[in-house]
Amino acid sequence: MAAQAAAAAQAAAAQAAQAEAAESWYLALLGFAEHFRTSSPPKIRLCVHCLQAVFPFKPPQRIEARTHLQLGSVLYHHTKNSEQARSHLEKAWLISQQIPQFEDVKFEAASLLSELYCQENSVDAAKPLLRKAIQISQQTPYWHCRLLFQLAQLHTLEKDLVSACDLLGVGAEYARVVGSEYTRALFLLSKGMLLLMERKLQEVHPLLTLCGQIVENWQGNPIQKESLRVFFLVLQVTHYLDAGQVKSVKPCLKQLQQCIQTISTLHDDEILPSNPADLFHWLPKEHMCVLVYLVTVMHSMQAGYLEKAQKYTDKALMQLEKLKMLDCSPILSSFQVILLEHIIMCRLVTGHKATALQEISQVCQLCQQSPRLFSNHAAQLHTLLGLYCVSVNCMDNAEAQFTTALRLTNHQELWAFIVTNLASVYIREGNRHQEVVGDMLHVCSHCLRAAAFYVRGLFSFFQGRYNEAKRFLRETLKMSNAEDLNRLTACSLVLLGHIFYVLGNHRESNNMVVPAMQLASKIPDMSVQLWSSALLRDLNKACGNAMDAHEAAQMHQNFSQQLLQDHIEACSLPEHNLITWTDGPPPVQFQAQNGPNTSLASLL
């Protein structure tokens, strides 16, 4: 017995020495690998060599699985060798499932591997992997919630919003059961965002009401609480803006702006939450700041405060440039494209077509770098090109661009916006397609419904049905005044002024044109200023007011010259050739033109 005990003790001592030796070589290799990975610049090849050197030692399963995960992660994040990354991550996932109490390695491997599958367009491999990981992670709250978010995001990218909403609902209920009201709110707000995208407004309203109550009642980390409030308010603001309710949104927008100011004064609390299910952030503070700038620009653009839109766009783009030096998150490129889309529309209104065209080219370059970004913004890009074509009187190209945009979108409000502009092209070209705006009066957006009445008024004006035109334009004015839609108000006033002038009612015409000019100057809207100054010139001449007529004529001449110079500059740019692009990805380069080839007549 004593001999057996001595032998057992010797074996145990040998095992302990072997384990200690194994731990020392493993820690040494791991230390070297981390040193090379964090070097400046990183020495990824040497890091990979150190990690690969672990396997000849035939390490225990735990070390083997973790090393496969580390290798897969390094290769995935720092190299283009996706095949080897996939092989290591698949081994990490396979081995870790056989080891009890090894959740972090197991679920991180599943999460990264599904990301890699998606990157390789193997979504059908990613879905079952995530579903299995979700199924076996119910006792690990952090990973269970994270994997639910990940699978919901995958369904969202595939435009399967119903499945994504179902998963987020499951996540909200799970978070409630494990006592995480914070993460429950994140799941519900994410679901609310998707319901807004699907336009399921009957479901959105009670959900947002519940979210508001949860956010107000939750007592926790101040930054997390304020970030929930920002998420909640961003959804409310975008909901109002999508509905074209520019005036009604102001209280929510003001709250949102105050909220982001509060967040910027708070210091990040490094104390980790006691509930592992609370270990989530919606967005970094800096990203939230850019997002608030973005929705402010959207509001200013719709309301017709274009100088304010310009100011906030400049601030947001400066912030984005700084962030993109350190952060390659795809959301930053999305923010940049949306900001550029809005500022391009501003430039076209304020008479800066050449700058707008260069910014359209910039959006093309951003979309060339990301197929997904292009897929999400192709319709908007062709719409912007259509608007540019209208501004330089290339009506055939405008029609082609708008028709392409209609083919590429299934978003109701964007479709309505394109149809409005396409209708104005048809009217200007003498094609009397009244049916093109018939369905637009049924869209949800207050702003677009008002625009539809304006287009119908314009159509009636060109047909000489002046009373009918006045009726439509007064409807536009009523709707525009209700929600402070300044550009539509200015356009309606000047067209009404034109109608009264044609009818010989000079006093009433003057009563319309003078406020139109004032509002257009405030926006500033160069085309309405040009139109108004021409009408004021003719009105004053007809009334015998020679000095006022001369002053208006001088204004008209100045606006004409500015627009003409900008027109020539824009049409001379190589980017002007973009107007012929209607198919496939954006062109990579442009050939310079000898000079403008578009009609200038309607500008003067």
From TrEMBL:
Belongs to the SCC4/mau-2 family. The lineage of its organism: Eukaryota, Metazoa, Chordata, Craniata, Vertebrata. It comes from the Eukaryota. Heterodimerizes with MAU2/SCC2 to form the cohesin loading complex. The NIPBL-MAU2 heterodimer interacts with the SMC1A-SMC3 heterodimer and with the cohesin complex composed of SMC1A, SMC3, RAD21 and STAG1. It comes from Prolemur simus (Greater bamboo lemur). InterPro entries: MAU2, TPR-like_helical_dom_sf, TPR_rpt. It is found in: Nucleus, Nucleoplasm. This is MAU2 chromatid cohesion factor homolog. One of its GO terms (cellular component) is nucleoplasm. Its main location: nucleus. One of its GO terms (biological process) is chromosome segregation. Keywords: Cell cycle, Cell division, Chromosome partition, Mitosis, Nucleus, Repeat, TPR repeat. SUPFAM superfamilies: TPR-like. It holds the Pfam family Cohesin_load.
